[in-house]
Amino acid sequence: MKKNHPYTGLFRTGCRYGLMRISDVVKTTPEVIKTSPGHGVKCMRDGMSSGNWVAMFSFDGQTSFNFFKNRWTSILREFQNECARQTNGKHFAEASDHVGGTSLMEFSKFDEFGNEEKDFHWPFQLVVEPYDVYGWTDEFQNDFTDQLSIIPPNTVMFKIFAFDSPPELGGEELHIGWVVSRSIQTTSGWGDTMLFFQHHRMEDDIKLRPWYFDWLQFWPEGKFSETPLINPPPQVTCPFSFLFDSQL
Fold this sequence. Notes:
The protein is 15% helix and 18% strand. The protein is an alpha+beta fold. The strands form two sheets. It has a four-stranded antiparallel sheet with strand order 4-5-6-7, with no helix packed on it. The relative contact order is 0.21.
């Protein structure tokens, strides 16, 4: 991490040991130009739990097979796909009224060595910018896991930018560091099924910074356990379209 910023904890020290899981949150096929790339980052801390952040481009994805074409963010706009709103969105709402946001506060409370920060300070939003230098195109070339496998160890993969207020409202970015991969990129069944990245709710931030509430989208569709699925089902599909079958 750079030293030109006011943020504390892991934002200040960075971490020498960590894990990054890059994934596509939709099932893609070569015939349909759409991917939804993102990652989870887990930084190890001495004698305590890890610090985590998650970021992705968009819930609704991008019309490109180039995983590194766009920036990824910790604050997402809500689903536009009506099927996803009725399924994924309502499930996410069981945990938070701000389904697109994840808090960064906990990342600032302890540094790499497990030292607690008395006056912790964190950004509202993180944005990571991939180094798009591998010749990947919008068209399908091969599976993204094969593409990522060519990235050698000791490679700077992302720039890290922080915002104290939303960029849509004029928030200015501050370059605070980089994500550097020290190992080869490899597929992992364990990583797909057993590795988890803790998501922290924006409600935790709002308790200390109540003005965040005005900056975040508030989910209007209700929770999956409390509101019925719309009938008839939406014409657009999503990975959870099968949930509407029970209504037929």
